[in-house]
Design goal:
Strand content: 5-15%
Low-confidence stretches: none
Number of domains: 4
Number of strands: 12
Shape: elongated
CATH topology of the largest domain: Beta Polymerase, domain 2
Mean pLDDT: 90
């Protein structure tokens, strides 16, 4: 059951010291979970989780700085170094799950019992740093080699215990480019309604990671195949054609996005693009707010997504815009985001990048012109005898337009224009 590993798992000196100190005091201590999995796959190791037969109270006695972040579930945070903390969990078995997410109780137990509560076999691997070996009780190494995602024990039981595992299965398969074991499909479909019991924040966290994985398009396909998509995006799936042509278009967008995605908000924007444009113009903004509220997006995220969706339509009109309107648009602070989004959309569509290249070429000049000092102010208009009022805005916008178009370049020219067009 123990398998020697030729190369050492990289850990910080602080983590090494924690493992060593536990062992010196007679306790078992291992690295477990995703860190071991990623290490064996040759991927970058991120967060480390440690497990031990030491109880939370014993951990607190052994280390000078600890935090009881989940003491009731056997989890303590231990300071490994200044600004470096690591979780140390006690071997345990879980009691009944009452909310499809958390066990009602836990019992401290053996390493074998601890392994039985893990979600997937590839996450149930225990790395012994001192002996440089891996303990595999559930054929997780075989699944790693086969690039296959399989649950520890009965799939239906694992998913009923924690419904988040339904999304984790899809996300991990996409991140690692693994196949999901065939026997998991019926279990996922049967337990899919449990997604409704999860918090919007946790669901969104998993979806965020799917969109940033190596296979966001595959994530959508798996969510559809496992009948999770209607639970996550009921608005889409109520549309007669969405699961056909529209979903294929969204998947293509998501696939292309891997080459030039600016940020996560753009991924969500791509996701909503086809559905947004299918809505009646008068209700688009209100309709898109429905999924925004369900996923509890921040106001900032909602505004960024909506503005990008709205602005994406303007690229069709770029050639016919008045010069001042075009330059004002090109100099908007968020235009770089809108331009990159259009680039992804164009590549995923007919491949016509003419509007992208046109706008990208003009933007430096637009920024230069927009950055010039304003030729006239409200005080200047008062000096010319104008009274403050709605007309002020019209005059100043007219001067700004002519400045952006390069027709006037000095204050004298601006004053002359005002006197000619707005006096008498």
């Amino acid at each position: 059951m123990w398998t020697p590993i030729e190369r050492p798992l990289p850990v910080s000196p602080g983590v090494r010291q924690i493992l060593s100190h536990l062992a010196q005091n007679g306790y078992e201590a291992y690295v477990v979970g995703g860190a071991v999995r990623d290490f064996l796959l040759g991927r970058k190791v991120k967060d480390l989780d440690l497990v031990s037969d030491a109880t939370p109270d014993q951990v607190a006695e052994l280390f000078p700085k600890t935090l009881p972040i989940g003491k009731a579930f056997g989890v303590m945070k231990v300071e490994a170094a200044p600004d470096e903390w690591v979780e140390v969990a006690t071997f345990r078995s879980d009691g009944a799950y009452v909310d499809s997410r958390h066990p009602k109780s836990v019992s401290f137990g053996s390493l074998e019992e601890d392994s039985l509560r893990r979600d997937f076999t590839i996450n149930a691997l225990y790395y012994d740093l001192k002996q440089q070996r891996v303990l595999d009780l559930h054929r997780g190494l075989d699944d790693l080699r086969a690039r296959r995602l399989q649950t520890v024990g009965l799939a239906i039981q694992r998913f009923k215990e924690d419904a988040l595992r339904l999304l984790r299965a899809v996300r991990i398969a996409c991140e690692l480019r693994f196949e999901i074991a065939p026997d998991l499909r019926p279990a996922i479909i049967e337990t899919a309604p449990l997604l409704k019991r999860l918090s919007a924040e946790r669901v969104c966290q998993e979806l965020d990671r799917m969109w940033l994985s190596d296979g966001p398009d595959r994530a959508l396909e798996l969510l559809r195949e496992f009948e999770l998509l209607p639970l996550l995006f009921p608005e889409w799936c109520s549309e007669p054609n969405f699961l056909g042509k529209s979903l294929a278009s969204v998947k293509k967008l998501m696939k292309v996005s891997r080459e030039g995605l600016v940020d996560l908000d753009q991924a969500w924007t791509l996701l909503f693009l086809h559905w947004y444009r299918s809505r009646p113009h008068a209700t688009r903004a209100a309709d898109i707010e429905i999924p925004f509220r369900r996923f509890k997006f921040s106001n900032e995220r909602s505004d960024r997504i909506l503005s990008t969706l709205e602005q994406s339509l303007k690229f069709r009109e770029a050639y016919s815009m008045r010069e001042a309107t075009l330059y004002r648009w090109l100099s908007e602070p968020d235009f770089g985001r809108w331009l990159q989004f259009h680039h992804i959309e164009a590549k995923a569509g007919d491949g016509n990048l003419a509007a992208y290249e046109f706008c990208a070429a003009l933007r430096p000049e637009a920024l230069s012109r927009a950055g010039r000092p304003k030729l006239l102010s409200g005080e200047d208009l008062k000096d010319l005898g104008f009274s403050p009022g709605p007309k002020f805005s019209s005059i100043l916008k007219r001067i700004e337009d002519l400045t952006l178009e390069g027709i006037i370049q000095t204050k004298d020219e601006a004053i002359e224009t005002v006197l000619r067009e707005f006096v008498g």
